[in-house]
Amino acid sequence: MVFKAQLFALSGVQPSRQKVMVKGAVVKDDTWGDIKMRDGMMLLMMGSAEELPTVPTEEEQPMFVEDMTPEQLAAKMDLPPGLANLGNTCYINATIQCLKTVPELKEALVNLNCSSSCQFQMITECCVVPAVRDLFVSLDIVSNSFPPVVLLSVLDKFFPQFSEKNEDGIHYQQDANEFWTEVVRCLQRQLVATEADEAIASQGAVGFQRSFIDRYFAGQFAITMKCIECEDEPVTTTAESFYQFSCFIQKEVKYLHTGLQSRMQETITKHSTVLSRDAKFLKTCKLSRLPAYLTIQMVRFFYKEKEGVNAKILKDVKFPMSLDVFDLCSEEVKKKLTRMRDRFRKDDEVKAAQKAKSPVFQEKEKALNKMDKDEEEEEEKPVLFREPFSFPDDIGSNNSGYYELQAVLTHKGRSSVSGHYVAWTRKKGDEWVMFDDHRVSPVTAADVQKLSGGGDWHCAYVLLYGPRVLEREATQEEIAEMEAEELRIEEERRKEEERKNAPGNGPLARLYKERKEKERREKEGQEEMK
After folding, report:
1. DSSP 174
2. Coil, strand or helix: which one is 340?
3. Which of 157, 183, 277, 372 lies at 20 to 30 Å from 447 by C-alpha?
């Protein structure tokens, strides 16, 4: 070893990396063996002075997509977390992931002043809404999949239609659209307007609705009834609200728009006051109010009395990524939509002109753009201003008639109470995300368009369209207003935190108040029984 230390001083090769050989024999560290040293003897040393390559750590080792767990894939690709399946609860998971794509709904739930503890509440809807709110908040915080335990326990306690279990104690599969409708109904009853919303409404929003759902999800039909058999029968016009637009899948329906139109005009039989008997009437429906978020149900299930199941219509019905409902609107609404539609048309013309530039010019532009990207200091991107998508006097409406698909709830199987439900939501542009319970995967717009049906693959069951928003470069005044609004929101959040943390408003104090309130109600109930 002393000899190798001397070699290290001369060569810089560590003793542990030296291999010394004499006449083909290797010299050991602690002994020369049978080798006899003499003057002028030739020795051969092999070794490198460079550092040996280290074994790559688990983080540094290459990992293939097919070998990744859903959590690892989501972390690498910056995907949102999924929801764990607690036993046939995919219908809950898919519905929640679709509704979560509505930013205004998330904001309204966060601002909801309602305890997440339902044990002191008398109204059952008060339990569902905070459970949904807490689930939304949890999905924004966690990185791995999250189990919707609280929401499921609320359904078990207050909604018997969703609490049925088999002999093994596992929940039965349920119809996702029925659950969607129930959640929206609960939100409609409890998500009322805030003081700030009402202050804005008092400035001229004549069509203002107190319920958030009524503002952003509720549309309205103007229904006209005209008797075909008697011209003396007065024509009647009524208004009817809806939270879902139904697309009936008949034999001739191949496209979503055709299915929507099919029930806008039909012949029905009803009692005629003039003829004093049943007569044929022409029923015409026109959209008299467009909600910001249009929910469309693909009516794929019908009840088979013989088998006693909701059988599925597998017919292929194409749906667009961009939907225009202008021709389904009343004349009055069409006039109101014209202004914003003209602005969209001009914006589309400008973009089309830019795309239609000569090939030579496009190549030069690409080269210049590449040079700009290679520069160390890139120019700041312009601040974009999002034009309002609602009418000033009707908060939560759609002022153009243009919609963009932002979420799809699909079903795979042959019956609404069996099979599997999955959510597909838009991330940005043509980038989409598929939520198959806890498994979250990136997909494209082309993948989403394959969900139109026609086989045993995933079929679109509920479509959620959001408003098309016109974006343009903001002026200095608008930038200042946006910055001021951000400061105002931040200040309100700070004050709210201070209020919650103030003496007497902490968690223990709130729990004490809730218990006192419960005792008071129980006492009143006992007195009434006496």
Report:
1. -
2. helix
3. 183
User: Tokens 């004549």 belong to which residue?
Assistant: 206
> In 375-506, which residue ranges form alpha helices assigned H by DSSP?
445-449, 476-501
- Per the residue annotation, which of 118, 126, 420, 459 is the catalytic one? 420
**Region 35-41 average pLDDT:** 76
Which is more confident, 252 or 71?
Answer: 252
- Does 90 qualify as catalytic in the annotation? yes
Give me 426's structure tokens: 């838009």
pLDDT score of 158: 83
CA distance 359 to 320: 30
What is the per-residue pLDDT for 381?
65
* C-beta of residue 91 within 8 angstroms of C-beta of residue 173: yes
- Residue length of the chain: 530
Q: Is the dihedral of CA 510, 511, 516, 518 positive or negative?
A: positive
436 and 422 Cβ atoms separated by less than 8 Å: yes
**Going edge to edge, which strands form the sheet with 219-227?**
236-242, 219-227, 277-289, 265-272
Sketch the domain layout of the chain as residue ranges.
2-46
Residue reference for tokens 């795979």: 412
pLDDT in tens, 325-380: 999 999 999 999 999 999 999 988 888 887 776 565 566 666 666 655 555 444 56
The tokens of 435 are what? 């939520």
> In this structure, how many other beta carbons lie within 10 angstroms of the beta carbon of residue 391?
19
Q: Which of 90, 285, 329, 459 is catalytic?
A: 90
The structure tokens listed for 17 are 């990396």
Region 2-46: CATH code:
3.10.20.90
Instruction: Work out the mean pLDDT of the chain and round it to a whole number.
Output: 81
How far apart CA 28 and CA 173 sit, in angstroms, is 73
CB 172, CB 162: distance < 8 Å: no
Non-local (6+) Cβ contacts of 122 within 8 A are 521
The string of DSSP codes covering 133-147 is HHHHHHHHH-SS-B-
CB 442: neighbour CB atoms within 10 A?
15
Q: Does residue 420 have an active-site annotation?
A: yes
On whether the CB atoms of residues 431 and 444 are closer than 8 A, the answer is yes
- Between CA 126 and CA 134, with CA 128 as vertex, the angle to 5 degrees is 105
| Window from 216-220, 301-305, 442-446 with minimum mean pLDDT | 301-305
